[in-house]
Design brief:
Blueprint lengths: L1 E5 L3 E6 L2 E4 L19 H4 L1 H14 L2 E3 L15 E3 L5 H9 L1 H4 L7 H4 L2 E3 L4 E3 L4 E3 L6 E3 L1 E7 L15 E9 L1 E2 L5 H4 L6 E9 H4 L6 E6 L2 E7 L7 H9 L9 E3 L7 E2 L5 E6 L3 E9 L1
The structure holds manganese (II) ion.
Length: 285
Amino acid sequence: MRFARFGTDRLGLVEADAVRDVTSALDTLPSYRYPLPTGDMLVANLATIRDRACAIAREARPSPVSSVQLRSPLANPGKLIAAPLNYQKHLDEVRANADLHHHNAINTIDRTGLFLKATSSLVGAGDGIALDHLERRTDHEIELAVVIGTRAKRVSREQALTVVAGYCVGLDISVRGPEERSFRKSIDSYTVLGPYLVTADEVGSPGDLDLYLTVNGELRQRSNTGDLILGVPELVAYASSFYTLHPGDVILTGTPEGVGPIHPGDVIEATIARVGTMVVDVRAA
Ligand code: MN
């Protein structure tokens, strides 16, 4: 199934190019009081919401997806975890280009570990990217985004996919420069998730998904998740060996080669097989 968030806090189910408003399925959520539980409550209660949403969708009128403004499929993720340099050819291009590495230490992922992006950087496809610090080089990075479905700590590689709720297309927008990754990649709107949350059963194995990204129609990145150095099960196991994972936590799996600068006025189209295509406008902040 494909869950969309759109407009002003609407929840939708997407089939083909049509979205059905199933917002009232959120009425099945428990009522919460401060302090709120950790994690994203839509994902934490996805099984219940899913059943209710299906029932509501049977009676709901379809609208074209193109007629709604897509928001981030996740409203309240607890953490945005990201994998640095997780495709060999991207590691090679970064090592070869000072505009990319800026004399930062370039280590392989098994030495660097993972990093966190601020949750305040998160937007949806319809929100677009607001470029800040226009004097700095800022690049697109397409990444498969993994959405965690259940609380997990020290999950094994073999069990890892059982804690995955679904997937999104992700953009890890990155200012190039000497600063920490968490700083350069956490500007408002520099994490884009979309177009929908696609449940794991619909995607199947995440290990052989074609992905590609165009800017203004020009192909910039094309690869397959089979080329990931650490695949999805390894990343979930690795992340959960350091962090407790909570429902709604996101793991951005890393970008392949072909990263390049974006500018106000550009239109990014990012596609991952069986997950979807999102179109994202770039503007000046
Ligand atoms: Mn990245």
